[in-house]
Design a protein that fits this description.
Helix content of chain A: under 10%
Number of domains of chain B: 1
CATH class of chain B: Alpha Beta
CATH superfamily of the largest domain in chain A: TolB, C-terminal domain
Number of helices of chain A: 3
Strand content of chain A: 35-45%
Distance between the termini of chain B: 30 Å
Number of strands of chain A: 32
CATH class of the largest domain in chain A: Mainly Beta
CATH architecture of the largest domain in chain A: 6 Propeller
Shape of chain B: globular
Shape of chain A: globular
Largest sheet of chain B: 4 strands, mixed
Helix content of chain B: 25-40%
Radius of gyration of chain A: 23 Å
Oligomer: heterodimer
Order of helices and strands of chain B: HHHEHEHEHE
Largest interface: A-B, 49 and 41 residues
Radius of gyration of chain B: 15 Å
Number of strands of chain B: 4
């Protein structure tokens, strides 16, 4: 297997100091409060990047289009398209004529420049608040290889998004998922990884063995998934950098599934089913030592660590129907936190630690929802014939999940934690079980 | 049993062939876990294999087990309790298995699509275990049997309707191969 992540090892960030004037954070008027939910998207302009040499020309427009698509897809921004622009950016360092941009109702102006030497590429950008006539923050420069040009556009997008919303970005990140093909009664399922916008899909397994439920580590370098390659479900651990792969967490005579990494990556928690009973286990990856965390005559599955590693949320039907529980990460007494109507499954702790996302079944419909970690303030974000398997964007503000229309194929969707901006993520065919990786370095 | 059909007859042949296929042997439990019982998944689709379909009129044939006795039992929503009909089927299966001790068994557990993936694997295991325990109670040795749960991911028929969900909530006694 080839290296999965483009060689951005040399991707360097340089702060452009020539334009220094940045406003103090509390005085920035160019601001969106995304937790409130944005009704009116902020209009922005993203003219083509200025090519600073002949090699940069072929990337000038493509970089701008990726940045514009990222921002538009958040639902928080609305592009004023290039054909409406009056102002022209012909030099990256020339002053901005704000009146030209005010005239077409732009609030945020992004300018960029690109140069290419051989396979090396340098990308620069600046962000301007058109209404106040100020640059927002300092200019930034990224350097890397030309085959990582999309990643550089994502880095620009993340910086713009962060400066305006005050939240972390999520565009330069990847998503592991299951790519499905063939008839549903004999489906081929392949482990795959893609950029968060559906680009650069790579297949990591060949489809011979059924695979389900991948989980990417917080470092983004390792993937856990469930494989039927030996005939019964087992856990596989794959290193995306080296391509190395091993089966882990064997419990004799059991079906082993539903794995998840601890936040430090040093251990994993998973379900093992045998004798009609499904319990949670934790395994230290360095020693292989396995500890049983639950022993209840019921189903315990879908474990997920809190970001500080101290607790595990999971689902159990010990009360008669599936509900969400929280217990210490070393096992012990579990506290039920879900009490609404219906069944609760697949709890996933937000990377910010503030919320738990879940799947809920009620009255024949499926929902993705969020609640606080004590179970309060439950909010349903979606409703459909079948929604499941939520996963958090690295900034904890967007959730991706699997949606299956009645009689249709599964595909991946995302939704903001406000419940707004429901979007389908393009994939090459049916897709399920997304796991959103970290913001790349 | 009415659900069995030409397709199952064909699967029986494929599965029997798989038992003789070295690629399907060894730790894969004879390949039967994936080749039998309508859960054919095309893992081993490289070549054309030829096998004896078996004569369902021969009471010692696998075809008889699958078509006349019935190789599967069904469950109600979110339940792993055996129905009276299911117990009768398993009793007949046990008689055949006790008379044909050379066969090993993979007990497949399945769920319908109206649930989350991991929960359905757990539920499928519960169902397979319930059927297996009943066979053990009827004198079938536990050493001949192993369980595999496919959750909701190997429907025998795919449609977003009650008719399909009812036949997908099942435990299938798959004849996995000749032991010893």
């Amino acid at each position: 297997m080839t290296r999965l992540f483009h060689s951005l090892t040399a991707l360097a960030v340089l702060i452009l100091t020539s334009f220094a004037a940045s406003l103090p954070a509390q005085a920035q008027p160019l601001r969106l409060q995304i937790t409130e939910g944005v009704i009116e998207p902020m209009p922005f302009a993203m003219p083509a990047f200025v090519p600073e040499n002949s090699g940069g020309g072929q990337y000038a427009d493509r970089l701008a289009r990726v940045v514009a698509a990222n921002l538009t897809n958040t639902g928080l921004f609305r592009e004023v398209p290039p054909q409406a622009h009056i102002g022209r950016i012909t030099s990256f360092d020339a002053g901005v004529n704000y009146a030209d941009w005010r005239a077409v109702n732009v609030q945020a102006l992004i300018t960029g420049a690109v140069s290419v030497q051989g396979n090396r590429m340098t990308v620069k950008f600046r962000l301007f608040d058109v209404l106040t006539g100020q640059q927002v923050g300092q200019g930034l420069q990224f350097a890397g290889t030309t085959d990582s040009w999309r990643r550089m556009a994502h880095k620009v997008s993340d910086a713009v998004y962060s400066r305006i919303t005050g939240e972390g970005g999520y565009f330069d990140s990847r998503v592991v998922f299951i790519s499905e093909s063939g008839p549903r009664t004999s489906r081929t399922r392949r482990l795959a990884i893609m950029d968060q916008d559906g680009e650069n899909v790579q297949f990591l397994t060949d489809g011979r063995a059924m695979v389900i439920g991948p989980r990417i580590s917080l470092s983004g370098e390792r993937i856990l998934y469930t494989t039927y390659e030996t005939g019964t479900p087992r856990l596989a651990l794959m290193n995306t950098q080296t391509g190395q792969r091993q089966l882990v967490g064997d419990i004799p005579g059991a079906q082993v599934f539903s794995p998840r990494f601890s936040p430090d990556g040093g251990s994993l928690v998973f379900s093992a089913a045998r004798g009609g009973n499904t319990d949670l286990y934790r395994m230290q990856l360095s020693s292989g030592q396995i500890q049983q965390l639950t022993s209840s005559p019921s189903i315990a599955t879908g474990p997920s660590f809190s970001p500080d590693g101290r607790f595990i949320a999971f689902e159990s039907d010990r009360s008669g129907t599936s509900q969400i529980y929280v217990m210490p990460a070393s096992g012990g007494e579990a506290r039920r936190i879900s009490f609404g109507q219906g069944r609760y499954n697949t709890p996933v702790w937000s990377p910010r630690g503030d919320l738990i996302a879940f799947t809920k079944q009620n009255a024949g419909r499926f929902h993705i929802g969020v609640m606080r970690t004590d179970g309060s303030e439950e909010r349903l974000l979606t409703a459909s014939f079948l929604d499941e398997s939520p996963t958090w964007a690295p900034n904890g503000r967007v959730i991706m999940f699997t949606r299956e229309a009645q009689g249709g194929d599964p595909s991946l969707f995302s939704v903001d934690i406000t419940g707004r901006n429901l979007r389908r993520i393009p994939t090459p065919g049916p897709a399920s079980d997304p796991s959103w990786g970290p913001l790349l370095q | 049993m009415t659900l069995t059909s030409k397709a199952l007859l064909l699967l029986a042949g494929i599965a029997l062939a798989a038992c003789n296929n070295p690629r399907g042997g060894g730790s894969f439990g004879g390949g039967g876990a994936d080749g039998f019982g309508g859960a054919n998944d095309g893992f081993f689709d490289g070549g054309i294999t030829t096998g004896n379909l078996g004569d369902p009129n021969d009471p010692r044939s696998v075809a008889h087990f699958q078509q006349r006795i019935g190789d599967r039992v069904f469950f109600t929503v979110d339940s792993s309790s055996l129905t009276a009909e299911g117990r009768a089927t398993l009793e007949a299966q046990a008689r055949w298995l006790n008379a044909n001790p050379q066969f090993s068994i993979v007990m497949e557990g399945h769920a319908d699509e109206r649930g989350t993936r991991d929960y359905n694997i757990a539920l499928g295991e519960r169902r397979a275990n319930a059927a297996m325990q009943y066979l053990i109670g009827q004198g079938v040795s536990a050493n001949r049997m192993r369980v595999v749960s496919y959750g909701k991911d190997r429907p025998v028929e795919a449609c977003a309707a009650q008719r399909c969900w009812d036949i997908n909530r099942r435990a299938v006694t798959a004849i996995a191969g000749v032991t010893g």
